[in-house]
Amino acid sequence: MPSFADIAFPTAVRRCFTYRIPDQLKCGMDDSSEISVSAGSVRPGMRVWVPLKNQMAIGMVVRTHQETPDFETKDIIRTLDSRPVLSDELLKLAEWVHRFYYSSLGEAIQAALPAGMNFIAEPRVRMAPNVHKPPSRGIEREIFDFLNDLSGDTDISLNEISRQWQKKGERAIDRLAKKGLIEIWQIPKVRMKPQMETVWSWKVAPEEIKELESSSPPKWIRGLQVLAELPLPATRVEILAQPGITPYVWKRIRDSGYVTSKEVPSDQAASALPHEPDSISSLNEEQASVYEPVREAIEAEEYKRFLLYGVTGSGKTEIYIHALRDTLARGRGGLILVPEIALTPQTVRRFYRIFGDQIAVLHSRLSERERFDAWSSLQKGEKTIAIGARSAVFAPVRNPGLIIIDEEHDSSYKQEDPAPRYHARETAIMRARFNDAVIMTGSATPSLVSLNAAATDKCRMLKLESRHALAELPDVTVLDLKQYRSAMRGPLAVPLFLAVEEALAKKEQIILLHNRRGFSTFIQCEDCGQVLECPHCSVSLTHHRSRRHLRCHYCGYSRLMPRQCPSCDSESIGELGMGTQRVEDELREVLPDARILRMDQDTTSGKNAHDNILQKFGRGDADILMGTQIVAKGLDFPNVTVVGVINSDTELAFPSYRSAERMYQLLSQVAGRSGRGSKPGKVFLQTLMPDHSALRFARSHDFPGFARQEMMSRKNLDYPPYSRLAKVFFRSADPQMVARVAETFTGILAGLLHNGTVMGPSPSAIERMNNIYSWEAHIKLHPEKGGQFIERVFDRAFEAYDKEKPASSGKVRITVNVDTMH
Ligand code: ADP
Ligand code: ZN
Ligand code: ZN
Question: Residues annotated as region Disordered (predicted)?
Answer without folding.
Answer: 264-287
